[in-house]
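Quick check before the chapter quiz. The format below is the same one you will see on the exam, so make sure you can read both the input and the output lines.
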Amino acid sequence: MAVTIKDVAREAGVSVTTVSKVINGSPSISQATTDNVRAVMERLEYIPNQHATNLARASTKNIAFLTTLRKGQAFDYPHMFEIICGAENELEKSGYTLTIINASREVKMGETAKKIILKKSADGIIIHDVPIDRSIADFIIKKEFPHMIVGKPDFSHRVSWTDTNNILSGEIAAQHLYQCGYGRIAFIGGKTDSGSVISPHRLQGAQSFLREHRTEIGDEYIRHISYDAGESYEAMISLLNKENRPDAVICENNLIAAGVINALKDNKIAVPKEMGVIMIDDNPYSKVITPTPTVVNIDVYDLGVQIVRNLMRKIKNPALQIQTYTTLPELIVRGTTTTPSVTPRL
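Here is the expected output.
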């Protein structure tokens, strides 16, 4: 027969209310009584009913991670799982669990988020790779529901978000190539019709730095493709076929870099002497690319940690507005760029 809270109370010589307060960490119970009750719980192998405890607290101790899950997701968006790992490990410290909820079958935009909020099936929600518009953002704010959006929305609003600074990533990439002496820089990034602002922001950052130094990436050196190594291979070939071809390329992510490096090898272009290559994001393909690419790395595990820390602040104060860039990008110099110099090549 299962041990009950009444059994613990009787064995410890206290009331059921006292045992309940010990379980919930009430500061009104003395340390001696707390130690006694916990010792009895351990001896009797009593495990509190967490669901009942959460109901008493008017809390689920659960966070919903709303995202899209499709076949091939692990290969197309590997960063999602690093974010989840960072978030889950940080939540565990506060006694929370993380529930992944699939929004890929939504008939109407935002219906899954609204259902979570109206049913109060979680204490907070993290929204990742799920389209939202102003009406959904208005709904979240109206309900004062603790939330955190992964990535800055493409519209101005009071919703809270946490993002890595993709503009800064582009600036760092362009600055490094410029300081290495490369003078004709190309950019290969993702298509801009998907609603994602990551690729435009990284290109914006690169252009911003270069324009400060009286140059820029010309339109003829910009390619927007699907996130596919085959397409990036073809994009690099088209750049090599130009009469005044570039001498360096910024790859928006490491999957694009894989195709670029293969194109350069097949055309016997010496890297980094004839063509410099820098990519943004280190994982998951950098370990299988030779030479190992220079990278502007983003610690997306830490991004997950920071998202949860911001969400915990929102849970304590739902009216708090948090809009922040975090997890600064880091330059890691490897074998696909030359030693920094002073004057860029022309």
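If your answer matched, good. Residues 239 and 245 are 6 Å apart (CA to CA).
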